[in-house]
Amino acid sequence: MGSTSTVSIVIPTYRRAALLRNLLKSLSAQETRHGFEVIVVNDGSDPDLATIETESSGMPTKLVRLGENRGRSFARNEGVRKSKGEIIIFVDDDMTVNPGFVQAHVEMHQDPRDVVIGDVVSPPEYKSHPLARYVERQGIHKLGRTDKIPPKCVRTGNVSVSRTLFDEAGQFSETICKYGEDLDLGMKLGYAGANFKFAAGAVSYHHHPPDIDDMIEKMQEYGRYTVPLLARDHPELKRAIKIHLAEPVRPWRENPFLTLEKIGLRLILVPPCYRLALGIYRQQWLGRLLFPVIDYIRAYNYIRGYWQAVRQ
Questions:
Q1: What's the start-to-end Cα distance of the chain, in Å?
Q2: Are 88 and 235 contained in the same domain?
Q3: 230 CB contacts (<8 Å, ≥6 apart)?
Q4: What is the DSSP secondary-structure string of 201-261?
Q5: Cα dist. 226→90, 174, 287 in Å?
Q6: Are 198 and 253 within one domain?
Q7: Radius of gyration of the chain (CA)
Q8: Which of 92, 148, 157, 274 has its CB surrounded by the most CB atoms within 10 Å?
Q9: How far is it, in rounded angstroms, from Cα 224 to Cα 226?
Q10: Closest by alpha carbon to 237, among 151, 146, 138, 178?
Q11: Is 250 inside a domain boundary?
């Protein structure tokens, strides 16, 4: 796509006016030859945003007001509907971006089926925190240099897609109102023939304090509300997120090794093991050796959340 391409940056926001202003300030400092507009979607009443359009002088900014909180998926879709760009960049309201952010995204779009994933990193004040280091090393950073990028690496805090492909894929699923909507979108983009690329020069800094209790709450919501939808709509994901092991044990009707794995999962996902893992994590003296512990804490909460949803 050429230098005349129009770019729309879509930002859903909910009660984060101060953080949003920091993001807009970083966007106003972009070093790019590509014109872009910013679409801020106020997902529910936030009177502090009333003057946001006039504050962003020199940068085309449109405020879309939703009368009630509809969730990130609906807010992002509505932002796209109100935008004009050929290329849509999604970024979260609790981030700031580097000066080459827009340029790096646009340069990678050579075909309408390109989906460009940027680099989400921790700001300097959180770099030493084990949870922040863990999050930085997930997704695309777990791949080898020659590995093909899978759909599950899409993170809506820093990703761009052509309007054509976004519409063809079916946009964000508005039935997903909690954490995990980006995995659903990534899968649908994959079905639509997306070519996933990584733009190391498109950096967003995540200004969200690393908090294990916040992560636990998100994983519980993910397991209860999102994982059942993902398992229904994308059965091939079950193995990737270990949900195939959370299904009922069926002795003599399934591979005996699968039965043993399911039993093993149930033996380790018990409160005493979980309390031990939390105790180890809170000591925070193991450095990178804490990463498997964090993996366990995440799995414990979303799998047990999934079991709760299935029982209901």
A1: 49
A2: no
A3: 180, 183, 184, 187, 237, 241
A4: EEEEEE-S---HHHHHHHHHHIIIIIHHHHHHH-TTHHHHTTGGGTSPP-TTSS-HHHHHH
A5: 20, 11, 31
A6: no
A7: 20
A8: 92
A9: 6
A10: 151
A11: yes
Q: Which of 120, 131, 129 is nearest to 297 (CA)?
A: 131
Summarised one tens digit per residue, pLDDT across range 38-48 is 999 998 877 77
Facing residues of 97 across strands?
A: 204
Regarding whether 72 and 50 lie in a shared domain, the answer is: yes
- Cα separation, 209 vs 232, in Å, equals 33
Q: Give the model confidence (pLDDT) of 68-108 as tens digits.
A: 889 899 999 999 999 999 999 999 999 999 999 999 999 99
Q: In the structure encoding, which two tokens stand for residue 209, read together?
A: 């304090």
| pTM (predicted TM-score) | 0.91
Domain range for residue 163?
7-206
Beta pairing, strands 61-66 & 36-43: parallel
* Residues 133, 142: Cα–Cα separation, whole Å: 13
